[in-house]
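Ligand: phenylalanine. Inputs:
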Amino acid sequence: MGNEKVWQGNTTFILAAAGSAVGLGNIWKFPYMVGSNGGSAFVIIYLICIFAIGLPVMVSEVLIGKYGRKSPINSLKNLSSEFNLNANWKYLGILGALSGVLILSYYSVFAGMSFSYIFNIFPSNLSDPSNYSSNYFKEFSSSPLSLIFWHSLFIIITCFIVGLGVVKGIGRSVNLLMPFLFIFIILVSIYSSFTGDIKSTLKFLFSPDFSAISPQVVISAMGQAFFSLSIGMGAIMAYGAYMPEKQLIGKTVITIIFLDTFVALAAGIAIFPIVFSNPSIEVSAGPGLIFETLPVAFYSLPFGSFFSIIFFILVSIAALSSAISLLEPFTAWMEEKGFINRKFIVVILGILIWFLGLASIFSFNVWSDIKLFNLNFLELLDYLTNNIMLPLGGFFVALFVGWILPNNLINQSLAFGKFRLKLFYFFLKYISTSSIILIFLYSAF
Ligand code: PHE
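Predicted complex:
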């Protein structure tokens, strides 16, 4: 194994994996999904999914990557041949690499929007900021050209970082970016708690209301758990391949999950107090919550425009460190195939993803009326990847590690004590696999 592709020290792996996990899913999607799915009921199911399904699946992904030391596809392929298993397991890696490319195509559109909002400073003395904001958002999203501009910029930066390589590109950028992200999210949540309505926020997020639970809430919470933890598509598996040999899988995964959950809840605490402090704003505003509604709320608060800039820088950093992990599995695979070199690969993939992203951009405007199952292209792609492809990928990862791989390999790689090992197997083999199937069935009928 060439050591040039292993991150030195324990922090880079943690920052990279946390960078992958913490993204638009936490800061943009989690708050609006909580807002439109009944508040605390969603939060509770989400947290259960994170710990009962997400934790064992993430441990399994890191384990496969760390043992295989290759791209997810080749790690799965090599493991299968080493232990005489069915050769088709590599398709699990292929499904993941494809999901990554599909997700990145629309992820980049929203990430580009966040980028642009760093520069969206409201003029002073507006008589109706709410009207100004919705007009701005309407104009922005109905103009394919401005969306394409920011989408292109975001794809170029993502490809540039991944093209620089695992150590110089991904490793360095997460070391640089992630500390800012954590400082900013704490700063904005403190600001919101003091200037906004923290009481209503805490009630909204944490006082249980089980009557709001429905099949749709459950499947959305599971999809969101997979999406937020970056599991089910090989991003964490790909990073696992660059984990130092001595680093412990269990402790590291717990740290990553803690950071991801912390940022999602902190994002709720950063956003809802401001939203609740403004009676004209709806919490259930949906995907427009941070773009259309939040700026209005910031506008009315002291130092609001300063914190709005900080907030959108924060969102952009989070999106960037996730986007690179969406691109890495496919890139690493192509690189192993000897497909000229990494830089060339990311250019080709970047162009492909860019084109695919156009379809999502047009869903906001010229294609907004084209619908299948009452969903436009973007909504369909979001549903397909988050609620179907990622949970399916996670299900097969759990099946592979829980039921197929030899136990002694797992026991050795994890180095867990007896009790923890038993708990891990129980959750992986029975709880995570059956809950994914049950949730699929529950939401289908
Ligand atoms: N976890 C990222 C987020 O929360 C998105 C992501 C999903 C990244 C899957 C990689 C893989 O925004």
